[in-house]
Amino acid sequence: MAHSNESTISEFVLLGLSQFWELQLVLFTIFFVIYVTSVLGNIMIIIIIFSNSHLNSPMYFLLSNLSFIDICQSNFATPKMLVDFFVEHKTISFKGCMAQIFLLHSFVGSEMMLLVAMGYDRFVAICKPLHYNLIMSRRICIIFVSISWAVGILHSVSHLVFTVNLPFCGPNEVDSFFCDLPLVIKLACMDTYRMEILTLVNSGLISLSCFLVLIISYIVILVTVQRQSSSGSSKALSTLTAHITVVILFFGPCIYFYIWPFSRLSVDKFLSVFYIICTPLLNPIIYSLRNEDVKSALRKLRNHYVNPGKN
């Protein structure tokens, strides 16, 4: 903490994804389409769920909150990255950099816990169907969402309280398109070994523990589904497949980053792109487009506004 007054850096320079103008135009087009699709897709999911009484269940309540987190994650760094494609000298203020670190870890930590809650919801629905409505009440769902945000914010604050007080006196170049915590910590004018271990333990434990809990619960669910009749298990298996796909694609890059967070390879920058920009698109694509209830609600909503005479 005593090092905070030694910081002389007022801004960081983001090196971005490429220095070639033609490639930046291509990347801008691709990421702009992904960004708009992700935001609009998640907004549409929220609208569909809250406008259709048939989707008034714990699973869809949690899914709508997942969409909200994904909208937040889409907007903490991506808009600036899109603007920076047309800026030669890409910079971000010290406060802006700390804000990005705080927001990223808040959203990611919250989404991890929310995915655990969704995994528990599927566990109860498939393994204890007769007690589902009693266990997964709206009150319990609100508690799960509140806990997920609380854990995400506390997880982020635990990083930020140490990072913001590190002495930054140069250099100030971050080899990424946003303020990635491990890359920012390495710029501090002091031995950051303890900080690196603290970051590894903090983020590594929460991501790995959530992942293991989900994998174990899904194994139990899969065993239960196999024992059920084929007529009652096909829909459950389809929903479960979507959950497992999202979990692997979400936790995979995260766990990879924190296996060796301070020894980055060139491919890591593009893996960060997938994690920050493409992950929020998983919810609309995997959960919703494969879900017959959501697709049916979408058709009803479309017919209500496009072809009102048919209702």
- Which strand order does the major sheet show? 2-1-3
Tally of separate domains: 1
**How much helical structure, as a percent, in the residues?**
over 70%
Tell me about the biggest sheet?
Answer: 3 strands, mixed
Under CATH, the homologous superfamily reads: Rhodopsin 7-helix transmembrane proteins
| Number of helical segments with 4 or more residues | 12
Beta strand count: 3
**Elements, N to C (H/E):** EHHHEHHHEHHHHHH
Residue runs with pLDDT of under 50 for 5 or more positions: 1-5
Describe what you observe in this structure.
- With 311 residues, the protein is mainly α.
- The chain is built from 12 helices and 3 strands; from the N terminus they run βαααβαααβαααααα.
- It has a 3-stranded mixed β-sheet.
- The longest helix is centred in the C-terminal third of the chain and has 35 residues, at 193-227.
- It is globular, with a radius of gyration of 21 Å.
Characteristic key phrases:
311 residues, mainly alpha, Rhopdopsin 7-helix transmembrane proteins, three-stranded mixed sheet, 12 helices, 72% helix, 3% strand, globular, disordered N terminus
Give me the secondary-structure topology.
Layout: E1 11-14, H1 21-51, H2 58-75, H3 78-84, E2 91-93, H4 94-127, H5 132-135, H6 138-163, E3 173-174, H7 181-185, H8 193-227, H9 230-257, H10 266-278, H11 282-288, H12 292-306
Parallel strand pairs: 1-3
Antiparallel strand pairs: 1-2
